[in-house]
Design brief:
By secondary structure, this protein is α/β, with parallel strands linked by helices. It has 16 helices and 24 strands. Helix 3 packs across helix 5. The C terminus is likely disordered. It comes from Runella defluvii. Pfam families: Lactamase_B (PF00753), Rhodanese (PF00581).
Length: 472
């Protein structure tokens, strides 16, 4: 039996490839499925099953395209109700993949259909658990997502189900089992996941707060629900796509890979409701960009910030990218369900400049310049990091408006006085700058390098207060 984790860092996602004696199975695949097909071909194996641990909220799974391209059977756990052909397994049902066995263990809590798959090798030895969002390394799945799709599934009910699943289904299993979760640190599907992406179940029983053996159900529920942040707005939209089905990625790529001249791009932007999305770096964007475009850099947590900041997965999009990264941008948009890319600017931003089109810029200052202004002019400063980051450490006397709340707090950005923006390193503050520019603000500067660079100057007072909520 061969088991491999296929990890995608930009969305902190882990899919799994299982192969035995010429047959293969994929667990929780991403939207682009060719890498899984190629992996099986390398082993001369046929993909027999696509196992889904649950209806994912943070990405659109590739299960449907894998089924269409390979003939594989899609398998969900008990209670799942997909709107397409799939096997809805029973608790404890066994599936053969070559000479090994996959056992279904229904573990509701994160969602009602959430299922863990126990891997049993060709010798009958229990090897590992593919846990989806039921059990992470150092954490467990948040229980508040399903209620955004089914109202009467309260987070308290789901937390109670998860407690029972962990105690009755997972914790009695052997300590030497390898835990293979669906996500690692950086995912919004949990609160405090480890950077490690696998561990033994025995080690998790010792160190995972949620598996403490003497914890009561009430204590578990309270602990699990404390400190939960509001889930990103695209989560319920992705869940519905995974339940109801979606358009093939091949069609999305054919539509999106449409090169547009500067003239054609401008016409499309004027004649449609498309958002102009610029995926270049913050540094390049600041030097010049198409008016009203939004900057979300491809070299960062791109898909997550697209989902946070672009309302509605059906939004039409026109792309400005570094040359050669157009296809990558379309794929990474599709991972979170943004399937309506209408085309891209051929030749990138340089083509726009060469056509003598209007451009805008964002003024930036260095951390040294910030320190000088801060100590001599007492400027208005707005920090767009998360509240937990701000509470942990920040420049004294500045205002915190987290990036994902900016549209609800625009009135707090002054228009009659200059101000300074910063985040941790410059990625998020440039996204904020692009939004403000598109809404008419032009009286601010951004700090290149953000808080990290500011702190390194050691020239401004920094608070190191730690908010108790960040310790949970």
């Amino acid at each position: 039996m061969k088991i491999e984790q296929i990890y995608t860092g930009c969305i902190a996602h882990a899919a799994y490839y299982l192969e035995s004696n010429g047959q293969a199975a994929i667990f929780d695949p991403l939207r682009e499925v060719q890498p899984y097909i190629d992996r099986a071909a390398k082993d001369n194996a046929k993909i027999k099953y696509v196992f889904e641990t649950h209806f994912h909220a943070d990405f659109v799974s590739g299960h449907l395209d894998l089924m269409k391209k390979t003939g594989a059977t899609i398998v969900f756990g008990p209670t799942a109700k997909p709107a397409y052909e799939a096997t809805v397994a029973e608790d404890n049902q066994l599936f053969q993949v070559g000479d090994c066995t996959v056992k279904v263990i229904h573990t509701p809590g994160h969602t009602m259909e959430s299922t863990t798959y126990l891997l049993i090798d060709e010798n009958g030895k229990e090897h590992g658990l593919i846990t989806g969002d039921t059990l992470f390394i150092g954490d467990v799945g948040r229980p508040d997502l399903a209620q955004h799709v089914i109202a009467d599934l309260t987070e308290e009910k789901l937390a109670g189900y998860l407690f029972d699943s962990l105690r009755n289904k997972i914790m009695p299993l052997s300590d030497d089992l390898i835990v293979y979760p669906n996500h690692g640190a950086g995912s919004a599907c949990g609160k405090m996941m480890s950077k490690e992406t696998t561990d033994t179940l025995g080690n998790q029983k010792k160190f995972n707060y949620a598996l403490r053996p003497d914890m009561t159900k009430d204590e578990f529920i309270t602990s699990l629900l404390t400190g939960l942040t509001t889930p990103p707005g695209y989560f319920p939209q992705n869940v519905l796509m995974n339940i109801k089905g979606y358009e093939s990625l091949d069609n999305i790529m054919d539509r999106g890979k449409r090169p547009l001249s500067a003239e054609e791009f401008e016409t499309a932007a004027n004649e449609t409701q498309a958002l102009v999305l610029d995926t270049r770096s913050a540094t390049d964007f600041a030097k010049g960009f198409i008016p009203n475009s939004i900057n979300i850099g491809i070299d960062g947590s791109f898909a997550q910030w697209v989902g946070e900041m672009i309302p509605g997965v059906k939004q039409e999009i026109l792309l400005v990218t570094d040359e050669g990264r157009e296809e990558e941008s379309i794929i990474r948009l599709s991972r979170v369900g943004y399937d309506n890319t209408l085309g891209y600017l051929k030749g990138g931003f340089n083509a726009w400049k060469s056509a003598n089109k209007d451009i805008e810029t964002v003024d930036r200052i260095t951390a040294e310049e910030f320190a000088e202004q801060f100590t001599t002019q007492q400027p208005i400063v707005i920090d767009v990091r998360k509240k937990s980051e701000f509470d942990s450490e920040h420049v004294e006397g500045v205002t915190n408006i987290p990036l994902n709340t900016i549209n609800q707090h625009l009135a707090e950005f002054p228009k009659d006085k200059p101000f300074i923006l910063h985040c941790a390193g410059g990625y998020r503050s440039m996204l904020a700058a692009s939004i403000l520019k598109s809404r008419g603000w032009d009286n601010f500067v951004d700090v290149a390098g953000g808080f990290v660079a500011i702190k390194a100057t050691a020239k401004v007072p920094v608070s190191d207060y730690v908010c108790p909520s960040t310790l949970l």
